[in-house]
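Hey,

The postdoc asked me to send both predictions to you directly instead of through the lab channel. I've kept everything plain text so nothing gets mangled by the mail client. Protein one:
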Amino acid sequence: MSVLPVEPLGQSSVIERLAAPHSGPVPFSVEFFPPRSAEEESRLWHAVRVFERMGPAFVSLTYGAGGSTRDRTVRIAGELATSTTLTTVAHLTAVNHSVDELRGLVGAYADKGITNLLALRGDPPGDPLGEWVPHPEGVQYATELVELIGTLGDFHTGVASFPEGHHRAPDLASDTANLVRKLRAGAEYSISQIFFDTDDFLRLRDRVVAADAEQGAKPLIPGIMPITSLQSVRRMVELSGSVLPERVADRLAAAAGDGPEEDRAAVRAVGIDLCTEMSERLIAEGVPCLHFCSLNFARATSEVLERIGVDTRGALAPA
């Protein structure tokens, strides 16, 4: 699918975008991943145009494990920044990259006009839960990556956070301390890993404020996703080391039924209900933004957004 260029509008920072006028009770943002085929790329750009018409605060583009989608990621991120009106956040991971390569990647993003980066240590390629081995000429922690980006120019950096605690952290206190270190290193905000228990996110927010009130004042953005397949979400939490709460799993399993194939329509309906309920509670708790993992689809997230009061009229119609 060809992408028609528009006059670049310049990339605001995420913090500026969160403070800008928005449709709905809070700003929202959307995560995409780099497509692996022409068909997937067409689907991605359809979703991009749908969300663009709704006015998200920003969109983000993930980075393949070990840089497996490096060139495609840089290209797609550049097209998002220059061929749409969307503020684009590019993910950057330390896995399998030397410091020189990381500098080159930051420069490649800058050449595309991208100044918003999400600094991640990243997961090992092949087995996300496997042993993490730093590049001999790279960095060991995301904190170092934040610091490196800070030496390279006027960039706006965010980091990841983990409501249930990172699976490599020995305990929640250690995980919270690590997030605070990343924020102190210069990160302006954090986006959480996807979670399905709102209390986990709210307790993380409490821990950060208790550990360092100044850093706790920075935006902590919840990462959420409308579930459309029980099998897929089970696989997702298995690979991430996170947990699907029993009450959520029970609702989804009841919808899936006892047949050889899950009732996808019923699971999807429950998944959208669950995501809407989470969104409404997070809004009531004063979150600065809702960050939706879209999996490069638009409709399920759009349904949640409509339910919480975002103006989606005409967004799903062909441009």
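Protein two:
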Amino acid sequence: MGIRKLSGKREEKKRISRTLMGPLTLFVDAKSSPADFSGSHKSKICNSQWDQRKFFASISTSEEKPFNFLRVLFEGVIAGGTAGVIVETALYPIDTIKTRLQAARGGGEILLKGLYSGLAGNLAGVLPASALFVGVYEPTKQKLLRSFPENLSAIAHLTAGAIGGVAASLIRVPTEVVKQRMQTGQFASAPDAVHLIVAKEGFKGLYAGYGSFLLRDLPFDAIQFCIYEQLRLGYKLAAKRDLNDPENAIIGAFAGALTGAITTPLDVIKTRLMVQGSANQYKGIFDCVQTLVREEGPSALLKGIGPRVLWIGIGGSIFFGVLERTKQLLAQRRPEAEKANSKQQ
């Protein structure tokens, strides 16, 4: 009987010892040899770390799938051209008012007639420019996202936006010069504008203000598309589903309005240099800034900010909404094998 009691006491002591030492042993093991964790603990920790990386990176490239470059280029061209033409047609009057506000010196009167002046000629440039921009942006973005570390997706979007902007500038600048000269009443038609600009100023006249255009559009394109893509990916991650058309439009409007406000001074400088013609009132970007501030005050650098933010905000809503919808429609026409790869990506 005494032996049984003694044996029972020993077993009780061992049980208590195991209970007390269990957490301590796990704690020591966690510090000394993480490889000794059980499979369940490994899984939980790895999942936690992966969730954090996924949140900051926005994308996953753990299983890279090859993408069809030509198809991505083609779909980008179609989607970009469609979105660009719709936005330009719908919001052209607001853009005209913005241009006239920026071009007016001192307290010049702003005319509200002919708000669609130059639309046809502008669309002839907007269509290929928008198509080229998105056609370059989409494959460049996808390539960079596969090349950059996951936590640098924002840099990939910024870079792709800037590269797309450089490509599109070859068409955008002449289009913008002709459009703004017509909006300010210097010419009656786009063909006349092109002919007279080349005759008086040479071919380089069509690229007047090219430096200031890049100064405005490269950061604009990079920032706008980066904000849009990052907000969209973050929202998609939080909602755990694909975004619908209204959600894409709202994010696009916010990205456009914010970027438009930030880059307004650059837009004013670009406008002044483009519309000066052969008068050469400004010798360059820095001279334009100094002259504006000296003659009209610092507030001149924010001229037209209201119409610009309104125009680009609404434009961003329409552009990105149409862009995503067009991309979805084009994706539905892909062969079944490519659809499967797209879903996996």
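Summary for protein two, as requested: The chain has one domain: 67-335.

Thanks,
C.
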